[in-house]
Each structure stands twice: as C-alpha cells, then as structure tokens.
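Posting this for the archive.
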Amino acid sequence: MKHKDLAGSFIVLILLTSCLSVSKMSDFPKTATAIPFERYAIEYHEKKEPFWTSKTSNEYYFEKETAMPETVLANVIQYALKEKKYTIKEVDTVKDYIIGSRGLHANEWSSITAVYYKLNNDQTKIQVYIKTKITQDITGGWSENRAKKVGEIIEREIH
C-alpha cells in the first residue's frame, strides 16, 4: 500500500514540475527605458566576452554606429523575429520595444523574445538589447542563446 502512495506522489510531483520555467508576456518590461543600456555598453566595450555572448545566456546586446530611421529598425527587428519563427505580439515604437512569441520547438514548449532598442538623438547610433524566456520541461535540453540568434540576424540586416 505504501508503495502505491509513494508512486502516486512521485507521479504528481513529476506532473507539477513538468515545466521548470514558464515564459509569460508579463515577465518583460513595457519600455526600453527599463533597460540599463549604459551598463551594457560599458561591458560591450570593455569585456572580451560579455555574459550575453555565452551559450547558456538568453540575453544579447550589441550596438552599431550607423544612420537608420526608427521605422526601418523596427521593421528589421520584426523581420529577425519572424525569421526565427516568432509571431509578433507587441510593437511599441513610442516605448522602443517589440515582443514576439513562438510555440513548440525541439528544445522548448514555447518562448517569448523581447527586443529593446535605443537610438541616439541624431539616429546615428543604435543600441539593441534582446532577452528570451522559455517554457521548458524537466528534461532540460541543450543550451543555446536564443536571444543571440535573433540578434545576429538584426546585426546582419543593419550591416
């Protein structure tokens, strides 16, 4: 009898922990002003390999010295998200962010990626910060920086 209770408890525990992390839209700030771009810029210029370049991170930051109108940048970001199979969920060019989500893939139940950007006053410098959150089961899976994959497409398209 005790073995059945123990087995039943174990099954319930597995079901309750089947998703170690859950991605939600509410996990992301609704404005780029919440992102510490200046801190990331310092790390970008001073560290050989900042944290956001690691395979285990789900963040990515880059900056480019280039003239680009905000509307073009917003289109490039949306293109990059769509290229990685995200559906665009929110676009706010006043608060400078775009959020996309995607469903089941080989290593995740779902994921949400938010792209925040900042243009200097004369629109000649672009700063971009990307963060991804995933819903994943207890199997873990392989490590890959999903935010970096989106960021690399944006960088490529910006030139």
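The domain at 20-158 is CATH 3.30.310.80 (TATA-Binding Protein). The chain has one domain: 20-158.
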